[in-house]
């Protein structure tokens, strides 16, 4: 650039300006366009399940001669098993979410009241399913559950789901505890409150948001769990992910597109509700994330 | 220890006992079996090194993990950096587009990619209708399809990690650089990039760890043709009942993950980013 400005002193500033302007707009626009293209890459491919769900054919395709509801009707037909799997996943999800939240709340409150070596070591172990690949846990559980005859049972599945959901439950509840002033416990103790009273009367009412987050997150973990489920279920317990997995592998049936569309719809509605509530709160109280 | 402290400690016991009995113990048993099944010794580990099939599986795992990590982290960084600088309204839209794939089941996503990429999928039929290609492209049931599906799976996660990390960077540093006349590229390479390097490495670490042990997406989008460690372990347990090799591979996977996390926590800036990302 300096060469040209030496050679053509009169024209150079204008051209250099123009070139700098072009560079500036490229620097501004290229990342911006790329960002929205990438966001589209994340979101748009999932939308294809919607038209496929309404196909009038019995195989995976776009609608050919018109839209059809037959694949949604197949979901509702008890003989096809989808309803049964949805109920199985719902029951396991609700029981796991309740148990996991109760255990995680007790643990987090105990560790918050009395920080020590055991609680901090246990916290690392409780959070480890976040990092340890689930396939390793699956190998271990096949072995243990077959020794205890718990393969393919409700109880066996619920235990696994509780454990896999534990990290998010602990993070949600201990996050809420982090916002709680330890002075309230000292105040309650100095007023003569017994430990059970402190937990149920003082701490738990302040953790409502964290407990709700824990219930939701652990339900979602359970609802989506597939890796370990593949190894510890067979005929008796067929959760929804297990059924989707089998039908993707066996015959690519458009009913999967119908169930996928419903799951997409629920996720979108849930997130919209959350973002709108978040918005309103954000307007009331700025700088309030998490 | 006071009565109150004992009481608090008792509250931590049920969850702790559950984890020890049904998480730590079965995993320790996996480690133990790798040295004792079928005969005591290091035979299973010797097999991992010498068996050509296993070496191929390990090589495939690396071949998928490396491009997945590089692509995921680069693309996620572009998105996260743009999101930090967006106006609140647009940022909310962008966040929505990231969170929907983040929360939707991995099976739904793999299924959507099958619909898009297969021989008579949307990409191939569109390109053929436009006359751009005559034969369908092989976009799936090979490493390309697995990498596409894995990048799509990891990106929301990496974006959220990087976004949290980039939001922590003091915006006044950026304003100072701008007021001193630094251009966009300069601000990026001299301010954003060095300050966010720990966050980038943590994001890469998580993507590597998740890719190493990933079963679902490689199995569905590779359809047995892209055999990675997790799927190979699963075949050993379900079909060939080769527990020795399955547990030895699991143990190696666990050691590799543990080593990566340990390396990361040794570095102070990485540890800070790791703890920040856990919030």
TrEMBL record, chain B:
Chief location: membrane
CDD domains reported for this sequence: TM_PBP2
Acetylation as UniProt keyword: no
Protein name per UniProt: ABC transporter permease subunit
A single BP term in Gene Ontology: transmembrane transport
Organism, scientific name: Pseudooceanicola albus
Residue ranges occupied by any ABC transmembrane type-1 domain in the UniProt entry: 58-264
Places the protein is found: Cell membrane
Keyword check for Transmembrane helix: yes
UniProt family annotation: Belongs to the binding-protein-dependent transport system permease family. CysTW subfamily.
Membrane topology: Multi-pass membrane protein
Signal sequence extent: none
One GO CC term, this protein: plasma membrane
């Amino acid at each position: 650039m300096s060469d040209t400005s030496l050679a053509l002193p009169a024209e150079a500033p204008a051209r250099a300006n123009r070139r700098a302007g072009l560079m500036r707009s490229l620097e501004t626009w290229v990342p911006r366009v790329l960002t929205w293209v990438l966001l589209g890459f994340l979101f748009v491919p999932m939308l294809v399940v919607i038209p496929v769900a309404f196909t009038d054919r019995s195989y995976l395709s776009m609608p050919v001669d018109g839209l059809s509801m037959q694949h949604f009707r197949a979901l509702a037909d008890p003989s096809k098993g989808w309803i049964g799997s949805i109920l199985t996943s719902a029951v396991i999800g609700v029981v796991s979410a309740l148990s996991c939240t109760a255990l995680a709340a007790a643990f987090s409150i105990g560790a918050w009241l009395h920080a020590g070596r055991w609680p901090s070591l246990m916290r690392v172990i409780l959070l480890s399913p976040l990092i340890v690949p689930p396939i390793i846990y699956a190998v271990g559980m096949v072995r243990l559950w077959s020794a205890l005859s718990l393969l393919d049972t409700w109880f066996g599945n619920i235990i696994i789901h509780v454990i896999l959901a534990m990290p998010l439950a602990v993070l949600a509840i201990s996050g809420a505890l982090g916002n709680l002033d330890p002075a309230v416990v000292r105040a309650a103790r100095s007023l003569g409150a017994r430990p059970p009273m402190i937990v149920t009367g003082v701490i738990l009412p302040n953790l409502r948001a964290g407990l709700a987050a824990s219930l939701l997150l652990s339900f979602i973990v359970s609802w989506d769990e597939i890796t370990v489920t593949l190894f510890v279920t067979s005929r008796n317990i067929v959760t929804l992910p297990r059924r989707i997995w089998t039908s993707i592998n066996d015959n690519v049936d458009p009913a999967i597109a119908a169930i996928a569309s419903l799951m997409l719809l629920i996720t979108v509605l849930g997130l919209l509700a959350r973002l709108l509530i978040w918005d309103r709160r954000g307007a009331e109280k700025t700088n309030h994330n998490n | 220890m006071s009565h109150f402290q004992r009481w608090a400690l008792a509250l931590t016991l049920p969850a702790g006992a559950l984890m020890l009995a049904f998480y730590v113990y079965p995993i320790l048993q996996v480690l133990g079996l790798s040295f004792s099944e079928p005969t005591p010794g290091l035979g299973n580990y010797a097999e991992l090194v010498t068996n050509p099939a296993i070496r191929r599986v390990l090589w495939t795992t690396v071949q998928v993990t490396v491009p997945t990590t590089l692509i995921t982290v680069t693309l996620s960084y572009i998105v996260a950096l743009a999101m930090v600088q967006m106006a609140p309204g647009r940022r909310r839209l962008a966040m929505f587009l990231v969170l929907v794939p983040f929360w939707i089941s991995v099976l739904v996503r793999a299924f959507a990619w099958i619909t898009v990429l297969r021989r008579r999928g949307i990409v191939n039929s569109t390109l053929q209708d436009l006359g751009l290609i005559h034969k369908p492209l092989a976009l799936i049931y090979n490493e390309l399809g697995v990498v596409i599906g894995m990048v799509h799976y990891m990106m929301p996660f990496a974006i959220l990690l990087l976004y949290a990390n980039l939001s922590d960077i003091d915006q006044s540093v950026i304003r100072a650089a701008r007021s001193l006349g630094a251009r966009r590229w300069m601000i990026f390479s001299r301010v954003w990039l060095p300050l966010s390097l720990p966050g980038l490495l943590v994001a890469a670490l998580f993507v590597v760890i998740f890719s190493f042990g990933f079963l679902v997406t490689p199995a569905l989008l590779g359809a047995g043709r892209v055999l990675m460690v997790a799927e190979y372990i699963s075949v050993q347990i379900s079909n060939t009942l080769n527990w020795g090799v399955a547990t030895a591979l699991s143990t190696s996977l666990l050691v590799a993950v543990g080593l990566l996390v340990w390396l990361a926590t040794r570095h102070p800036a990485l540890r800070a980013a790791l703890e920040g990302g856990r919030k």
